[in-house]
Predict the structure.
Amino acid sequence: MKNPERETGVTRLRAAVRDLWDELSASERSVAQYLANAPAEQLLFASAQELGSASGTSNATVVRALQRLGYAGLPALKRSLTTDFTSAVAPEVRLKQRIAHVGQDLEAIWSDVFDEARERIEHCRRLTDADTFKRAVTTLAEAAEVYCYGVAASELAARHLALALGRLGRRARFIGATGFAFADSLLPLGRGDAVVVFQPGRPLAEFTVLVERARAVGAKVLFVTDELGNAFEGRIEAVLTAPHTPTGITAESLAGLVVADALLLALATLDETRAVETSHQLTALREELLRRS
């Protein structure tokens, strides 16, 4: 028996093809027909170029067809399909499917990883507008201290942001605790501080406690996420969308790291003197350590 929840993304795709069929060109119909008939698992692992070849068109036609069907691009389609897929298929089964998809062709493996990374980053760039990015940068620039929170796969991006903020001369700390230990991490949070939460999609009870604590003490919160923005709409300063991996081929933290780098570069340009002076001090300390080693 089919799981109706798993069919959600596929049902939406097929409905879009059916409803918009008359508006598609002949080549776009070829793409749409292929997408509607292909297994969801196959679409998750396919690049635009592969879909173009399979439908007898091109990667540009694939992108145009997807946009006509209401998707921002291939990553958006995969995002629609992946929630149902990952919730219904065990991790070890998904791993076997990834391995089966790439096989042992080293050239194909190299291409697949870079193709998905490029698609995710390009999709990430489109999903956050300039006003949202400016609001996020302003929040961090005005913060007395920045708390960078991330657990599991999101820990890497949070640690990266905290470390790099310190190298720009800004007070920052990493938080990765959960459960009762998380309460200790929230105690120092105060008025004028900011929190950056890295988390693709899984809701945690800690997020609600964090947001409520921040509002109570006068701190501000940013989310770097794929799916959690709506849950806290109206209670946080900004949501920077970082698409998660639909296949597991690229690192979960990839998009979050790129978003963090964009924030860091913006902050460096806002206070170049502080950034340069801190960099000089860091270099001097490193040279002293080398001299004494």
The chain has two domains: 8-103, 130-288. Residues 1-7 have pLDDT under 50 and may be disordered. The first strand starts at residue 146 and ends at 150. The domain at 130-288 is CATH 3.40.50.10490 (Rossmann fold).
